[in-house]
């Protein structure tokens, strides 16, 4: 199954992106997003997903599905990565905060689009492995930290864009505070291991926040370190 991912990753990636583009179009009436921009498509084309999945998952690297990455965590489904990235509308000079680095795959996609990416992962082994992978790709404008991302990254705030790739029962207040006026934040909101609501939030120039519901999704939970 999907031997292409091992023998011909470029062909498998092209096939996957055709599928993702079709799925984006088909779900457009629910998500409000019917197409992928050239920039986002270019970023997805440039990041080889097989380099971010475990050795025993290589055969499925270009299937449109989430995959285990160890420690009970998953790399997101490519369709969801594409949708969340597109909805965030990242401009080339943007400073982006990502919560839930995981494998570093989504981080790499963000790094293709933004001026600077800060990413926080609570499991130190995953953070270290992702940082290593990203440095091998030559990204020098990505910084990864092992911590509870729900507190944000005060030192580098405010951020133009924030992406959270783990499900929270509510939008963490620190992240809302650290979002710039005019900024966007995307996050799955809901109970762990149930269907959650992918939400896109806009903060206007006066600081007023509007939230819209995009799609039902299932993410691993955002785990808070209470202090
Ligand atoms: N975007 C990732 C997948 C994320 S899975 C990828 O492309 O591979 C969600 C990740 O969020 C997991 O690695 C999990 O450990 C992490 N996570 C959960 N709670 C967190 C928290 N409070 N702060 C930072 N990371 C968290």
UniProtKB/TrEMBL annotation:
* Reaction catalysis annotation: [protein]-L-isoaspartate + S-adenosyl-L-methionine = [protein]-L-isoaspartate alpha-methyl ester + S-adenosyl-L-homocysteine
Mention any one GO cellular component term assigned to this protein in its UniProt record: cytoplasm
Enumerate the InterPro entries for this protein.
PCMT (IPR000682), SAM-dependent_MTases_sf (IPR029063)
Q: Does the keyword Cytoplasm apply?
A: yes
Q: Name one GO biological process term.
A: protein repair
Whether Transferase counts among this entry's keywords is yes
Q: Which GO terms describe its molecular function?
A: protein-L-isoaspartate (D-aspartate) O-methyltransferase activity
Keywords in alphabetical order: Cytoplasm, Methyltransferase, S-adenosyl-L-methionine, Transferase
Cite the EC number: 2.1.1.77
Q: Where is the active site?
A: 76
**Family of the protein in this entry:** Belongs to the methyltransferase superfamily. L-isoaspartyl/D-aspartyl protein methyltransferase family.
What is the name of this protein? Protein-L-isoaspartate O-methyltransferase
Originating organism: Candidatus Contendobacter odensis Run_B_J11
Q: Quick one: which gene encodes this?
A: pcm
